[in-house]
């Protein structure tokens, strides 16, 4: 059975007893899907101990409605963790993580300001701060992140390098539904019709059109488009379907 740990003090005791065992860590905000499961499976196969965290981190939400509507599914999540033989679920509350009430934060001043960072002010400060805190608490050897959140993944790699953090970041490929939509917790917020409409996003992202053409075509279809950009041999984008913001990227 996956053991639920809510308190840092309780985890510290467990961590002290792990001796030389390898520890893999999968940070999440819950509402788990097969994308998360792919990270968990990799961690379970690579490490002797796997820790998953579920913490809907308020400091990375620039939009209070987005935070309030963020899907939460604790019971189903717990079943999924058990079915993968995850050893520990770290499930802290706000006060446990933000004992400073977010007076201290970690920022990156360049890459975090473009792409998603341009449209979600403060988002990556919140992400980097919470990931640093979680790393300092869990003290994993390896941590697993998905390529769907490509900018997040690169910023976390940069943070580890900048602060000489001895944690290996494992980059995991995007898991898609059979129809091509990248799995995302926020997909649960789409109506059936919106979900069908959302399929235009991955379809156009992977087309051989230019980023400008893709931007225009998505707008003409009725998407609100934050950006379509290319970097590192990838085309990345963020769009709104109704109130739901989706991100995705493909290799080009
Ligand atoms: N489809 C996916 N394939 C691979 N990894 C994924 C996928 N979706 C999410 N992840 C990874 O799971 C980790 C936790 O992500 P998170 O809990 O925010 O889920 P999410 O589905 O990305 O939710 P959101 O709706 O916030 O985008 C991140 O490292 C993220 O990149
Ligand atoms: C890395 C993370 C768990 C930090 O809250 C979150 O941004 C996510 O789920 O991708
Ligand atoms: N997976 C990224 C979390 C967020 O959108 O806040």
TrEMBL record:
GO terms for cellular component: cytosol. It catalyses: (R)-pantoate + beta-alanine + ATP = (R)-pantothenate + AMP + diphosphate + H(+). Pfam families: Pantoate_ligase (PF02569). SUPFAM superfamilies: Nucleotidylyl transferase. Keywords: ATP-binding, Cytoplasm, Ligase, Nucleotide-binding, Pantothenate biosynthesis. Its main location: cytoplasm. GO terms for biological process: pantothenate biosynthetic process. The keyword Ligase applies. It is an enzyme of class 6 (ligase). The active site is at 36 (proton donor). (R)-pantoate binds at residues 60, 152. ATP binds at residues 29-36, 146-149, 175, 183-186. CDD domains: PanC. It comes from the Bacteria. Beta-alanine binds at residue 60. Pathway: Cofactor biosynthesis; (R)-pantothenate biosynthesis; (R)-pantothenate from (R)-pantoate and beta-alanine: step 1/1. It is found in: Cytoplasm. Its EC number is 6.3.2.1. The reaction proceeds by a bi uni uni bi ping pong mechanism. Homodimer. Belongs to the pantothenate synthetase family. Catalyzes the condensation of pantoate with beta-alanine in an ATP-dependent reaction via a pantoyl-adenylate intermediate. This is Pantothenate synthetase. It comes from Melioribacter roseus (strain DSM 23840 / JCM 17771 / VKM B-2668 / P3M-2).
